[in-house]
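Would you mind writing out the residues of a protein together with its fold in token form for me to study?
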Amino acid sequence: MELSLSSTVTGNALGQVVHSFGFPESAVPLFTTFHPDVFKEIDDFFSCDQYLGRTLLQKAADLLVYKSRKNIIEATSRESQQNLQYPINQYLMAIWLTFRYDVPNISKRPDIVHVATTSTPLSAEQNTLCVLADRYRDIKVADHIVGNHTRLLSKSGSEFPLVARTPLTASQFLSGVYYKREDLTAIGAYKVRGALVALHQAMKTHSGYSFAFVSTGNHALGGLKAAEVLNPHPASIRIVIPRKTDELKLRKLQEEIKRLFSLGINAKLEMQGETFDEAKDWLKDNLQQEEYYIDPYTDRWVVAGQGTIGLEILAHINLLLSSRNFKEANIREIIVITPIGGGGLLSGICSAVNGALQEGKLQECLLRGAEIKFVGLRIPKEKQQESKYGGAILVKNIAISNQIILNALGVDVVEIEDSGMEDAMKYINSDIGVKVEGPSAATIYPVLYRDEYAPREDRLIICVLSGGNVSHFPV
């Protein structure tokens, strides 16, 4: 299908990039031959160059050796027909990255110069290692930011003393099963980590801007809490949520906006669309020039902030394995289970654990030969429309930048439906006496009903309770 640049691209985010972010005129025809879905998906990549840069630039270098648009199209079609890991839309992103770094910033990134110009292509394994190394560096920066602001908020005497730094709670019913209590953060969900880190970093380069968040509730609450802590004057905050947002989250958002107003911070709330994806599409079409958008799943620093949970999990594991209860135990496998919406939480945790293992941060576990496995809980697309309890993870697709990490690290994905979430919510309430959101509770589901994740004497299981902001609890 041939697309007209003037009718299809102009006015959306990709069109702005073509015309405003340094593309030479000769590059414009490259964007006129792809299906509209490609343009939509490519919007999600704009903040992911560090994660995908080396891999995609190598692909771009391969493509750009061709002298004509016809050959580029034939090359990408050939690759997609072979069902490789990197689909056609990532080749488009690769071309964008190549032109972006070509002038004037490529001289500042010798690693990119090497990848884009080398005559010896990096292997898939080398590319993955580079991507993971970049992400782990970000997570260590994020951990420092979270640590500093946790202490600052604690000193302020806030009703909720923790921005993050959440405890591990042992299951009362199941031996060797623990809950990572992200429901105990300042907003009742892990999302405050990524929002805090992303806003902190964005303020360095976008002082005085307005900041925009789209969310099903928790990411928005995180953005407002981050604004309270960081006080980004004279900037303002715009929150866009779907009309089906959970009642408790909506009430919390309205209360937090009123509180920020009393502190001199301008924030406003808009309800658009019925789902997260519809709200996000609306915001992208209506993003103001002065607004800096912080995506809940693809923003580099949001994902790094979520990855700090992985570092804390490693600290918990070290303490457990050196404790009296586990000293004599022969732990052979550690399973970490989280929900998956856009994939930022689990890919961040995976990247943190993988990076720390490379640095030898979990020596006690390594010496015993224990293997760490990751499991993600996802609602099937065909069941999302009718889901009553899955609001926090009702996202059509896992962000491709996160999917690449999940694929590379061999993450298991288990599908969950409302009946399973309902059972899990009741179970956790009986087990440790807390009410958490359906996707949070779902982390116990495979432990209860799947033999490959069931408790064993040689197995340690950590279920990440990602949020506790729930209005509708099953009776």
User: Anything to note?
Assistant: The first helix runs from residue 5 to 9.
